[in-house]
Request: fold
Amino acid sequence: MSVPSNRINSLTSLTGELRALLGDRVSTAAAVRAHHGKDESYHAPHLPDAVTFPETTEEVAAIVEICARHKAPIIPFGTGTSLEGHVMALHGGVTVALTNMKKIKRVSAADMDVTVEAGVTRKQLNEHLRDTGLFFPIDPGADASLGGMTATRASGTNAVRYGTMRENVLALKVVLPDGRIVETAHRARKSAAGYDLTRLFVGSEGTLGIVTEVTLRLYGIPEAISAAVCPFESIAGAVDAVILTIQSGIPVARVELMDAESMAALNRYAKLAYPEKPTLLLEFHGTPTGVREQVDQFRTIASENGGGDLKWATSTEDRAKLWQARHDAAYACMAMRPGKKVWPTDVCVPISRLADCIAETKRDLDGSFLFAPVFGHVGDGNFHVTFVLDPDDAKEIAEVERLNERLVMRALAMDGTCTGEHGIGSGKMKFLVAEHGEGVQVMRAIKKAIDPDDIMNPGKVLRV
Amino acid sequence: MSVPSNRINSLTSLTGELRALLGDRVSTAAAVRAHHGKDESYHAPHLPDAVTFPETTEEVAAIVEICARHKAPIIPFGTGTSLEGHVMALHGGVTVALTNMKKIKRVSAADMDVTVEAGVTRKQLNEHLRDTGLFFPIDPGADASLGGMTATRASGTNAVRYGTMRENVLALKVVLPDGRIVETAHRARKSAAGYDLTRLFVGSEGTLGIVTEVTLRLYGIPEAISAAVCPFESIAGAVDAVILTIQSGIPVARVELMDAESMAALNRYAKLAYPEKPTLLLEFHGTPTGVREQVDQFRTIASENGGGDLKWATSTEDRAKLWQARHDAAYACMAMRPGKKVWPTDVCVPISRLADCIAETKRDLDGSFLFAPVFGHVGDGNFHVTFVLDPDDAKEIAEVERLNERLVMRALAMDGTCTGEHGIGSGKMKFLVAEHGEGVQVMRAIKKAIDPDDIMNPGKVLRV
Reply:
C-alpha cells in the first residue's frame, strides 16, 4: 500500500499547541513514538509525529480540537495489543495514548455494571471487582484496555457464553472528530430510543471518534466453575464434539480447540505435559448441580467422538494456569521459531460449516512449508491459524498472504466473516469489501458524515 | 405539531408508475389507506396517498426508486401494532406494506438460525419451527411482523433472559432510500468486520431504509418450562422480589409485574379469578433440575418479600393461556372504559432504581383522575403505565401528557431511557433530545448521509 506523505502543514505549531495544553505529557522522543507506532502484528511500524497522554475526556477533546484545526491524523492507542495494524500512524499525526486514563469511575453491584476510563485494562477491572462477587467476562487473551476492546469489538474465550463487546457495552463516552463529547446511552439494560450509537462506535476502530469512557455489564461470579482439558483422536472428532455441545444447548462458558501442533508448542513453552493431540479446553459455569449436568452431557458427547479422559482444573489457581497457557498460545508458537513474528488469521463461520472449514484449511496448511498451528474459540465458529513467519522474507509473506486469502474466501463462501474478533485495521481492508460489498458504501457515508476530513485513524477499516 | 403539506409534485404520475410496476398491488382506496394510516396508539391517523404490496426485495427496491424520483415519502408497514405513531403518513406518500412478504426462506437447525421475509410474524415463525425443537423467543405481545420488530428494536416478556431484537438479529437485507439493496452481515455468530450496520438498522424505525429480510437467532426449546403466578402484599414487595431475583443471577425467562388494577382488569376481561393484588407472572426455563433450583431460590425470595403461594402453569396449554392473558393486559385495560384508547408509556431504568421509579410514579397516578394501571417487564427495569383515555378529550390528553413527561424525566434522571421497547415514532421525538443531547446531532448526521432527501418515514425519530 502506498502511504501518502504526512498531511500536517506545520508540525512545530501543532506540537507547540499540544505542549501548551499538556506540558510534558506530549512526547516527540523517538523511543516513545516507536513504541506507539506498532502493535503485536507482523505489520511494519509507522511512527506518529507526537504522542499525547491526556488524563481526562476534556483533555482528549482539546487535543482533538487542536489536531482537527491542523488536519492532523489522530490515532487512539490503548495497550498496543491489536493484531491488524490498528495503531500504526500510517500518515503520521498524533497518537492519543489512553494510558493515563485508568480510573474506575463507578461500580454498581446492584445494577451489575461499571463505568471505567478507556485506559483501564480487563485485568485491572477484575482485580478491582474481586470483593464484589462480580466479574467482567470478556477475555481476548491480552490484558487489553477496555477502550481498545470496545474499539475492536473484542471477544475471546468466554464469548460463547457471555457474548462479545457488542453485547456487553451499555454506554460510551466518545470524543468526536471535531472535539464534541457525546454520551451514546444511559444505563438502562435496553432502550428503543433512536439509532444505536453505542453499537456504532463498538468496532469502529477509532475511525469515528475516541472512546474515553466505557460502561460495561458485569456478571455474578458463578457458584461453581470447572475447567477441563480433553484430548481427541482427531481434529474432526474434537470439532464435531464442539458442534454437538453447542447444538445441544449446553451453556458451556469456554470451549477452545488446540490442534496437535499448538499443544506441542504450548508444552514446550510453558513446561507442560499435555498429550500432543487435538485438544479441547473447556470451562463450565453454574450452580454445582448445573455444572455436574453440563459435564455429564459433554462427557457423553466427547466419548462418542473419540475424546479421551477429562483432566480437571477446579481450583482458582489451576484454572488460572490453564487459561494463561491458552493465552500464551501465540507466544508459544512464536517461540518455536525464535525471533520471528506471528500473523494470526481470524475467520468465523456458522457452526455447521466449522468442521469443513477447519478440514479444508488443515489440508491447505499440510501442503505449505510454514509452521502454522490452528486454535480458536470454536464454540462461536471462530478460529485462528497462527502463521509464524519472518516478516523480512518475501517468500514467507507471500505464502501467508496466499493461504490467508484462501482461508478468508473459504469462510466468506461459507457465509462467515473475514474477522471474528481481531478487526479490519489496515490489514483486512480488501476483505471488508469482499465481505460487505455495497454495505461498505453505507459505512463510507457514515464515516464521511462523522469525520469529513478523515482525521480519525486514517487508513484503517475503510478507504475514504 | 404542524404537519407540512404533501410534498409530492404529481401524485397521478407517481401512482401511474407504481401501477405499471405492481398492477392491482397498489391501492388508493380510502379504506386501504385508512387501515395503513394508523397504529394501535392514541395518535391521530394520517393517511398515505397510496399503499403498495410488494412481493420481493427487488419490488421494494423498484418502489423506492420510483418514490425517490418523485421525492415522495415512503412509510414501511408491518402489522400496524406499533404504539408511537410509527406508521402514520404524516406527510402523505406511499406506504410499503410488507404483508405479502411472508416467506420463511431458510431454517438451519444446525446453526440455530432462520432467514425470513420482513412480513413474517413471530407466531407464524414459531408455528413453522414447531417440529424442529427450536423457537424464537422475542415476544412483544402483539403478533407483530419480524421486520417491524426489527425496525422498533422490540423486546417484551422474554427479553430478560434472551435479549431484545438488538441481540437476536444476525443480519438484515435492507433497501436503502435510493433503491440500493444492502445485506448488513453474513451468518457468523460474531464479526469484527467494519461498522455494525445490522445494529444501525435495528431500531431505526424505517427512517434509514426498509428491512425486507431478517436473519434471526433461534434457541432450543428448553427441556423443562414452568410458569407461575405469585401475588404480593404490596407493589414494593413484588418489585423488591424482582430486583433480588435478578441480582441473585436466577436466569428467569420471564418476570412480569402487574399492579392490582391491571389484575382486576384482566380478571374481568379474560374471566379469570386471580387475587386482585400486585402480582408477578414468571417463567423458568432449563433442565428439570435447573428449573427446580430456580424455583426454590425464587420461592425463598418471594416469601421474604410478602409473596403468597405460587400458582403453577406447567402444561403448554395452561402456559399459553397465562401469557395470552398477560398479552391482553392493554386490551383488558381498554375494556374498563369501552370505546376509549390506550396511551402506554414505556420507560426503563437501572434495576436499582426500579422500586423508587415505580413508587414515585404510583404516587403521581394516585393523585390523578385517570384510570392508569401499571405493568411491565420489570426484570429489565422496563414498565408501562397504560393510560386509558378519550383522545378527543383535551383535558385527558393534557393530563396524560403531564404525567408521561414527569415519568420520562424521572426515568432519565435515574439514568434510564424514555423508551425501553416501543420506540420514538412521532410521539417521543422531544424526549429523544432530552435523553441523548448532542448524540441526536450524530444521529441526524447519519440520517442525512443515508437519506439526504428525508423520504424514509419522515417525521419519525428525528427532526431533520
